[in-house]
Amino acid sequence: MSAKLAVLFLLMTIGFAMPVLLGFRSVNDIQLPNIHTDYQPEQPISYSHRLHAGVLNIDCQYCHTGADESRHASIPNLQTCMNCHEQVAGQTQEAKNNIQNLYVAWGNGVGEGVKWKRVHNNPDFVYFNHMTHVRIANYVDDKGNHSKGIDCAVCHGDMKTVGVARQHQNLTMGWCINCHRDQNTRHAKIGLEARAPVNACDACHR
Amino acid sequence: MAKPPVQLFCGVFGDEDDTLDATRACREAGLEFHDVYAPYAVHGLDRAMGLPFSKVTWVTFCCGALGTTIALSGMTYASWWDWPVNVGGKEALPFPAFVPITFELTVLIGGVCTMLGMFALCLLYPGKKARLLHKGQTDDKFVIALKKTEDFNEQKAREIFQRHHAEEIATRDPGYNAADEPATGGAA
Amino acid sequence: MGAHVYSVMREPLVVGKKTLHEITQDVCQSIEGKPSLLWWLGFLTSGAIATAGVATMLYQMYVGVGTWGLNKTVGWGFDITNFVFWIGIGHAGTLISAVLFLFRQKWRTSINRSAEAMTLFAVLCALIYPTIHMGRPWIGPLWIAPYPNLRGPLWVNFRSPLLWDVFAISTYFTISLCFWYIGLVPDLATVRDRAKHWLRKVFYGTLSLGWNGSVRNWNHYEVAYMIFAGLSTPLVFSVHTIVSMDFATSVIPGWHTTIFPPYFVAGAIFSGFAMVLTLLLIARKTMRLEAYINEITMDNMAKIVLLTGSLVGLAYGTEFFVAWYSGSIYEGFAFINRATGPFAWSYWIMVSCNVISPQILWFKKLRRNPWVLFVMSIFVNIGMWFERFVIIVTSLHRDYLPSSWAYYTMTWVEYAELIGTFGIFFFMFFVFIRFLPGIAFGEVKGVNKYARHDSHGHAHAEVKHG
Amino acid sequence: MDIEIQTRRQDDLADMPPEMRAELEVVSKSRRDFMKVTGMAAMGAVIAGCTAKEHLVNPLLKRPEGITPGVVYDYAGTCAGCASACGVVMKVRDGRPVKLEGDRANPLSRGGLCAKGQGQLWGLYDADRVKGAAKKDGEATWDELDAAVSAAVKGGGAWLVSGTVNGPAASAAIAAFCARTGARHVSYDACGSHAIAAAHKATHGAHVIPQYRFDNARVIVSLDADFLGTWISPMQFAAQWAQNRDLASGAREMSRHIQFEARYSLTGANADERFRLPNAQRGALLVDLANKLAGDKRFGEPGKHDVLPGDLDRIVNELKAARGHALVVSGSDNADQQKLVNWINHNLGAYGTTLELRNHSRQALGNDNDLADLLKAMEGGAVKTLILMGVNPVYDLPEGARFREWMGKVGTTVAVTTHLDETAAECAWVAGDHHALERWNDFEPVRGLYQLSQPAIRPLYKTRHGLQSLLKWAGEAAGNKDYREYLKTWWENNILGGLAWTSAVETGFVDGRASIVHNMPVMNEDAAKAADTGKVATGDFEIVAYESLNLGDGRHAGNGWLQENADPTTRVNWGNYVALSPHTMETMGVKEGDLVKLSAEVDGRQAGLTLPAVRQPGQAEKVAAVAVGYGRTRAGKLSHGMGTEELAFTDGAIGANAFPFVARGGKVVFGAVSAAGGSSKVARIQEHDSQEDRPLAKETTLSQWQKNPRSGNDEELPPKELTLWRKWEYKGHKWEMVVDLNKCMGCNACVVACNIENNIPVVGKKEVLNRREMHWLRIDIYYEDNDGSKYDGEQTKDENPAAIFQPIMCQHCENAPCETVCPVLATIHSEEGLNTQAYNRCIGTRYCANNCPYKVRRFNWFTYKHSDLTMNLALNPDVTIRSQGVMEKCSMCAQRLYEGKRMAALNNGGKLKDGAVTTACQSSCPTQAIVVGDGNDGDSRVAKLRQNPRNYQVLAEINTRPAVTYLAKVRNRAPRPVAEKKAAHSHDH
């Protein structure tokens, strides 16, 4: 009887005390499976960031013009593409096909345009501002180096190595908040004023 | 509990006072109980059998304490350590506000575990087949079952049973189950 | 040796000199025989009402809380009134099981099973309201449960009495369910052993967990039962205390009162006992259980109703006194407004039903008259519903800023849902008395000999084989 | 209408073309669905865990020049909501205006913009607009229309009817049209001030309305002139009036404002001393006043009036003492009375100081004489062609019904209009005009101040500028080009004088007031003496038809924001009513909401209407007041409750037309007022108007304040530093707001500004009747006895109570009761001291709203949606649309605060200049009663105002520690015993 009692007790203790024993922290770190990270839909034109940003070394803001002056980084107008592709028709067959699709969409300035699939989809109640992060925010990386503005790659990954656009981070609120907290800690460490909002719902939800 | 290895000497009674007295007498006579069965809780019957106080209280205590711990640590973790927020100008660690939930979780976990622990101690579980020594033992009959061990004094036992107005005295096989007997119309 | 000695003043708890088997027989008849026409009538009527109620709730959740008559000033009306009302009803069962058990009130045995079942059903009805009163019930459960989430480490607000409510009520429901079930197990075993149909055998066999009346089990069982009684006693007081904190911790005049916890608990017991009386007086008649739910039970119940009713009356008076004594103009106004404002009708219904009507119970004759008790219990049910209405609505409709004062007019949706919950409640009760033993005969048998002056010493003389 | 476009979300508007393609009409099927949908979707995603919903984006082919998606651009312009021509800043985002705000640089309006001005956006995006050229029985092309109308006007006998057109180029265009075609131009104002101009013609020889300068006036006496609400140029006057009532910046004195009026106007509610005076006695009072100032009886014997001689003598003395700084104004339409007013002002030395003829007002150029000519000509069949430009005479002329008849005698009728109103519906041709926000135009509100307005959006429909149409029909070459060319040329030739066109467009105005040469005319006293106004007409009930504060002359009747904006004194919205004094109602045996029938003979016509009665404390006895502007039958969906599926607009026609009760020449209308039997519910957003002796809206008198700056705000409070909890520190900014009750005049402009800025839904009459209006900001009114005791809403003690306004929005309590009770942390305190509400987290228990002592939280009872999808373009993309079941409330315009911080970080090294961020309510306030700023910045205005002795927190005793505080009102009361005043009001019934 008492042996059974002991087993029962042990089972119960393990069953109920597990959260306490393992710590709420670790439970908290469990991410529910989410559909966002690595989302890489097939696009009507398989535009390659690797080629344009990587090989050709075109600046991000050449196309995503809003990133440093607006909430939206914005998806470029086809006119931006045509700035070069008036001249460049591609070398490989694949490139030629893609660029041909571009010409059709452009249609001499009166075409249908391209219906891109949006990769980064924050809900409408989230007011993320690109300008604040790209131009205003101070960023301290994990080595303690301080820079004005956050490099695009921090959130979007190194697009110079990615072909068709892909979501790099999960972009959940937990991810945002943890970065803000880390930044505030790192700022404090190197004696800078910490300004990333953490306890301010209205910074993103209003 | 597995089937008793020995045969059982059973006395069936119709009154709780008789049963109680008979049980006491059996114990004083040094007869070994297999068990006593009663349709309802008869106070003192377990003491009369010489059973110790139930250990279910310990289950309650430990699990209740566990509930308290989970509640307090969880709330402290969530509202103070993990992300302290300014709610109505109150402190991030408002202990008075934790009292209700701490209490409730203590009772909840303590209570549920008490029930589970009690059933575990009784080895009761859904689907278990009840073993009856008499059809009426959950209705109006009391059964005292004594182990027919090697040194069992059947004579003495029978004498005690009869003295206490036993309605039926029988020896049952280890595997006997009155529930398997065909219906006798007793429950009509 | 059979040392049951009772004062001659005592009256037997079970009248009619029943044998143990007759008790089993009496109680089991309702679940073994064919259901009566009356039962079918009640079952179908309450089922129809319940269905209509649920349909209304779904409609309301889909279209919006705006289908109720609430407004920017009165944010809670029928919803929370019904919630508190049903929670109050749900107090009697556990109180009868636990507190009266601890006080060794043996007359409780005839009513505790039904009262506990009523508790569970009432709490279920109560739980409907916090759910449907939410603007977005479909996401409520996601947020309320403190679980790791995608929104970062943002948990819930442990300072909110509403969250305490969630814990308190779910605990109360779970513990009451366990308590009820533990009590049921031996009785279910009896029913199992009487069962003939294989389906019944399986059903009751599964539920009764193989119970066979072993005293080794009774040993644990009795301790566990005692522990449950011990746990439930503070629990039953805590639940309505916490519900009262929804109001007491707020800043609204008429809500912000330290008297609320005892006041609410007394009110809850009051309303719960009234509802138990209502139900059992019906059951006694329809199920022919006069031997068990007899005058002594009624008398005792009526005494508790009288006591708690007077406590509630005292609380009403105290509130007025404190409102005046506080010197706060807002507090003072809130109470004057209750008695004389636009909702004065509800206040006076409350006072006449809750304070005045139970005063007839000072007379023993009336305490033992089932008809008087029945009518009185209905009055108390109505009065206690209005007590919650008065507290919630009259305090809200005129609070600090006169510019926001507003009246609250109920809509058909609110009435339909209120009636619907009664349908759900009675529906569950009808199902219960059909399938489960409505009287804890295992416990009644234990008190069968109580104050039976004929049964000194051995009672075996009467026991014949059945 | 493929699925992709329907799934476009609000953000994607940024990627849409600024020329609003028809596609846009299907953007997001309903206005408020998406949160529910995304909420569901999120749940679904967690459960399903595998599929991603595709969102498609189709960027423009070419980037519009100078537009970055998501960036707000400010353009200067001029408001065309009425003829006051206030300066506005148009906030344009992604090629569409999302908000109008007052232009602080404008010398007249100084940043104020009234509710009507703000609400113009509704008119722009209204789906009921005229979408191009049309004829009476169907569609038409512009060519057809042009051909027909050009031919008609060339045939002679053409009349052009417009409202006030004061722009120099616009006037020139009209003049050119008239010169070419021989047409006659008639302008009229439905609620005009012709009598003032006519009186000045008689007394000063110039048919002008002077520009009033309340900022120079120390004593203001107004006889029924609602100059803070509706009279001539209320925003301008409010700014001037408030300038002399600002006691927070060092001044020790303030102006004294005395009002005589029959109804209870917004201006009367703000007066220091208010007298109830039926309009019939106004002439007599003027004669009495003039005689007393003159010291003899040169203006004849005054009839009997209700003002006690003692009061009048005192007022005369006050006026005399303030000579040169006194101003008497009258809202009378009676030229004789206005002549007396002119003499009084002349006698007080007001000309040149408190009223100017040099830079006279051009804000009401309507001429009733011209109008009379037109009506006569129409009746006689002499009008061959009638062009109605932006006017609606069938509705807003007292003789509208006859006008409609006479239109049948006209050969060709043409309406140049944005909406198919009552008049346009009768016209043969309808030339769709641009909305004011789509077109170039100019204005000259006062002589010498030239203002421009530029389009904030490309025309949404195939409409054409009305003036261009005129030029085209006249055969001018300019008619074939965009009107901008004409305007620009005219300005370059006549106004700019070397100034760059672009800089004029940028500032929005050119101030040439100083260059106007003007010789002060001599007062012709004989003209005043000839005025015959001393007699007091008598009759049964005096019926007063007044201009509605929210709908003006009715042109805004199709505007949901304005319909839902409540009247400041009765707090009624969605419809007009018969306002009666409580005593009159008692005598008549009429309860609030009972239908009352009004009938009278007006200028030989029979006028009648039936409306519910509403009690208006302080109104004169036996006076029935009805607002005009309601009862439109063709103002779009709103006007007659035609809405179908939406919850909002389902309660019948909105009011009744009271214009037939307007009598020409300011004659007093007497008629019969009787209970009509039955009742109709009146929607009001405040039902109880007594403070119940609670210290909520505090006040003191000037003399007490001068002795003790804390007077009126000196009750003892429980110790507030005693606390169980440690105080939270706010390290960065701490946003705070101070509202000066002495400057707030209750005009409700901030309410509409807030609604537009924060996407607050219009819920309609039915829901207002359920007390579910969604306004985050409201202006409470409390009435109180003049002797200082509080007015009890149930039982009137004083028949002429004073009023106090108090704007209430979320108080952003430091110890917020709402936050503690939210189970899900949907509302918590931000690190910048704001009470934030995360809609996406809210589950809608309404516990927070219950526990809010200020009752400022609003719950989305339903999914509120527009039936017009174009209205979605008016939504502010920076503010979430709230879904059903979510609590919402004032966020102190968090989006603007963050934008301000961003701009400070970019331009000012992160240092936020005080005043750089404004909330929507603040930026619209004509009197600048609202100040927002960083309380942690000791130099900020808000921090200083919090130290002001008049500063207090509402409900301070419950220790919520609001971030929003108030400055107690100061009344400049008459120095006289109370008893005498009591007596003054007891004899008139």
Explain what this protein looks like in three dimensions.
The complex is a heterotetramer of chains A (206), B (188), C (466) and D (989). Chain A contains 9 helices and 3 strands. Chain A is mainly alpha-helical and 206 residues long. Among the domains of chain A are: 1-30; 35-41 and 48-56 and 66-73 and 120-206, no CATH class. Chain A is globular. With 466 residues, chain C is mostly helical. Helices cover 67% and strands 0% of the residues of chain C. Chain C is built from 17 helices and no strands. Chain C has helices at 20-32, 37-63, 78-89, 91-102, 112-132, 140-144, 161-194, 198-207, 215-248, 260-286, 295-326, 329-340, 344-356, 364-367, 370-397, 412-435, 441-446. Residues 455-466 of chain C have low confidence and may be disordered. In chain D, the strands form 11 sheets. Chain D has a 7-stranded mixed sheet with strand order 6-5-17-16-15-7-8, with helices on both faces. Chain D has a 6-stranded mixed β-barrel with strand order 21-25-22-24-23-26. Chain D has a 4-stranded parallel sheet with strand order 12-11-10-13. The model of chain D is unreliable at 1-52, 641-651 and 977-989 (pLDDT under 50). In chain D, helix 5 packs parallel to helix 15, helix 5 (168-181) crosses helix 16 (483-496) and helix 6 packs across helix 11. Chain D is globular, with a radius of gyration of 28 Å. With 989 residues, chain D is an alpha/beta fold. At the B-C interface, helix 1, strand 2, helix 2, helix 3 and helix 4 of B face helix 1, helix 7, helix 8, helix 9 and helix 17 of C. Strand 1 of chain A pairs antiparallel with strand 1 (56-57) of chain D, so a sheet runs across the interface.
Distance between the termini of chain C: 25 Å
Low-confidence stretches of chain A: none
What percentage of amino acids of chain C are in beta strands?
under 5%
Helix and strand content put the structural class of chain A at: mainly alpha
What's the overall average pLDDT of chain C, rounded? 86
Low-confidence stretches of chain C: 455-466
Count of strand segments of chain C: 0
The beta-strand count of chain A equals: 3
Report the span from N to C terminus of chain A: 62 Å
Give the helix/strand class of chain C.
Answer: mainly alpha
Radius of gyration of chain A over alpha carbons? 24 Å
Count of DSSP helices of chain C? 17
Q: How confident overall, as mean pLDDT of chain A?
A: 82
Oligomer state equals: heterotetramer
- H/E element order of chain A: HHHHHHEHEEHH
Largest sheet of chain A: 2 strands, antiparallel
Relative helix content of chain C: 55-70%
CATH class of chain C: Mainly Alpha
How would you write the strand order of the largest sheet of chain A? 2-3
